[in-house]
Amino acid sequence: MIPKVVEVTPLDGYKLWLRFHDGVSGTVDLSAELWGPMFEPLKDKTLFAQVAIHPELETVTWPNGADLAPEFLYRAAQHLVAGDAPEAARA
C-alpha cells in the first residue's frame, strides 16, 4: 500500500513535519535532497514554506511542480525519532 500524506507543516532548516493516513508521523530533513533543477529552487525559504498536499498524488508538492515520493517520506519519517506534532500542527 502506498502511504498517503494527510498533514504537512514546514519547519526551519528545510524540514517537514508529516502525518500519514495510518497515524505515523515524524520530521523529515530534506536539506540534503534539495539539488537538481526541480529541487534547488526550494532552497528559497519562502518557496519551501509553500509546501502543500497534492489532492490526487497524496504527497507533498510545491508551486514549482516539485514533489516527493510518499514512500521516501514515509521511510524517512520512520527512521527519525518522531516527536509530538509541532505547535502549528496542533492548532
Task: Write a short abstract of this structure.
This protein has 91 residues and is α+β, with helices and mostly antiparallel strands. The chain has helices spanning 45-48, 70-79, 87-90, and strands spanning 5-11, 15-20, 25-29, 52-53, 60-61.
Indicate the CATH architecture. 2-Layer Sandwich
Distance between the termini: 30 Å
Coarse shape: globular
**Spans where pLDDT lies below 50 across 5 or more residues:** 81-85, 87-91
Structural class: alpha+beta
Order of helices and strands: EEEHEEHH
Q: What fold name stands as the CATH topology?
A: NE0471 N-terminal domain-like
Name given to the CATH homologous superfamily: NE0471-like N-terminal domain
Mean pLDDT: 89
Please count the beta strands (DSSP E, at least 2 residues each): 5
- Beta-strand percentage? 15-25%
Radius of gyration: 12 Å
Number of helices, where a helix is a run of at least 4 consecutive DSSP H or I residues: 3
CATH top level assignment: Alpha Beta
Q: For the report, how would you describe the main beta sheet?
A: 3 strands, antiparallel
Total domain units: 1
Spatial ordering of strands, largest sheet = 1-2-3
Determine the fraction of residues in helical runs and give it as a percent range. Answer: 10-25%
